[in-house]
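Entry type: protein chain
Record version: 2
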Amino acid sequence: MATIDKAPSTGGGGLAFIHDERFRSVFYQLVTGVVVAYVAWYLFDNTTRNLESRGMSSGFDFIWLTAGFDTDFTLIDYSAGHTYGRVFVVGMLNTLFVSLIAIVLATVLGFFMGIMRLSSNWLVSKMASAYVEILRNTPLLMQILFWYLGIFSLLPRPKQSLDMFGVGVSFLNNRGFYNPSPIFGEMMWATFVAIVVALVAAFTVRKWAKTRQAATGQQFPAVWAGLAIFIVLPSLVFLVTGSPMTWDVPSLQGFNFQGGARVPPAFLALLVALVIYHSAYIGESVRAGIQSVHRGQTEAAFSLGLRPGKTLSLVVIPQAMRAIIPPLISIWMNVVKNSSLAVAIGYPDVVALFMQTSLNQSGYAIEIVALTMLFYMTVSLTISGLLNIYNRRVQLRER
């Protein structure tokens, strides 16, 4: 007589769902969420009670209160009497301004140094190696202080200023860098629109050139064509609209310069230090990325008749970017976060203006620290997100 095999019993009767992996996964996530929420609520409640017991104010209403201090460098209109909220905006813009310039310059210089390290010229290679090794192993704070105290603070006084371009419009002294500032007319908006259109057109030409080269193998000077579009189109619009822009040129009056735009020595020292320090790390990442590309790729390009420069730009660098981008994300984020060291030399970034001066005057320590941390976190996540999008595009995909 045939017998029917029964599935082994798991036991537990109505509690068999405990052995379900999906149930346990959801259950553990719910428990973790509850614990995290309870800890967060406990910390918030405990902090609020401690602040009340000490008679300390809390909340974010302070951003509408009047700040009683001024600063020597702003990108927007600000003076003593504006709110702490505007102080926060001024500090954020100052931080983003120096960080953005430092990221661009450090990336360009870092790529240059990374390529120089792989040069067949012994002297060039050793000089690039010394640059990378010395600067990577020197604390950034020391480099900032060196440039501020040892270079820019020792520049001549205003009356003996250095004429940077020999035409009497830009001057460098121990009070900063003075250069002409633009004064825009009513129709200047048309030129700005033309610049945006030219950028879109240049990127469109570049994309078309890459598609054409992939299909036919024929190269098109997309860089030069894009550069011509970017220069010619805005220039034509600027001239047609009557050149709606003049310049406010700085001039020496008494003991200092009047007019124009002034960049303080603290900004210059911070910018130079950030660029040089982080370019050393980028250079090392570029060197490692290039060496990760198999030498056979270079030999194959040479066998097709490509020159070394074209081989580097069309074959090696595009493949090396897969290895360069991941560490580059961290380096760019570090540029923004390390800019907070500007507090040591008095550059009015978000830490100096908001988390130091504003905190000392208003007393809202927790709120100010939280807003500052939120700013840095937002910038870092934005950089990481944008570069990760590009990183996913350049990574190899399995078929």
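Comment: The beta strands are 162-163, 171-173, 176-179, 181-184, 245-248, 251-253, 256-258, 261-263.
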